[in-house]
Amino acid sequence: MPKDYPSRAKYVTQFKEMAEELASLQGPDGLWRPGLLDAAAYPCPRIPVLLFLFLALLTGSTQAFWIRAKYQPVVQKAWTGLLSHIYEDGRLGCIQPVGAAPGDYTAASSYVFGTGAFLLAGSEVYRMAH
User: Fold this and answer.
1) What does the pLDDT look like over 35-56, one tens digit per residue?
2) Cα angle at 1 between 115 and 10, to 5 degrees?
3) What does the DSSP assignment read for the chain?
4) Which of 43, 41, 39 is nearest to 105 (CA)?
5) Separation CA 36–CA 79 (nearest Å)
6) What is the Cα–Cα distance from 65 to 62, expressed in whole angstroms?
7) In a 10 Å sphere around its CB, with 0-12 CB exposed, 13-18 middle and 19+ buried, how is residue 105 labelled?
8) Is residue 121 a contact partner of residue 52, using CB atoms and an 8 Å limit?
9) pTM here?
10) Burial class, 61, CB count within 10 angstroms (exposed 0-12 / middle 13-18 / buried 19+)
């Protein structure tokens, strides 16, 4: 969104509020569950959705919408959690099928759109580190 966009401030404020709330809901493994307010309801993290939330945090951090130091630990913890779902055969797991209910997947579920999101997130992690 261009810096001179008329309602940019509104969206930046909303984005900051959402980032704050998401950071507070991060699980001990660095990931988030489909039931953000009830992590026990769905034990597997929802990797594709998580990756897009993660990308939003990364993009905001690298473009200085807020204080980078505040969210860098959240991002690092999430990245470590994501890496734990790459299996020996190279698959990224915990990918919910398109159109499936939140509980209709397992840790072994893997679909290409999740891998694409992972690569996008990895490029932002790289950019943040350099």
Assistant:
1) 888 888 888 887 776 677 767 7
2) 110
3) --TT-TTHHHHHHHHHHHHHHHHHT--TTS---SSTT-GGGS-S--HHHHHHHHHHHHHHHHTTSS-HHHHHHHHHHHHHHHHTTB-TTS-B--PPPTT--TTS--TT---HHHHHHHHHHHHHHHHHH-
4) 43
5) 18
6) 8
7) buried
8) no
9) 0.81
10) buried
Non-local CB neighbours of 33 within 8 Å, separated by 6+ positions = 27, 39, 41, 42, 43, 44, 45, 46
* pLDDT at residue number 7: 96
Q: What are phi and psi of 86, to 5 degrees?
A: -100, 120
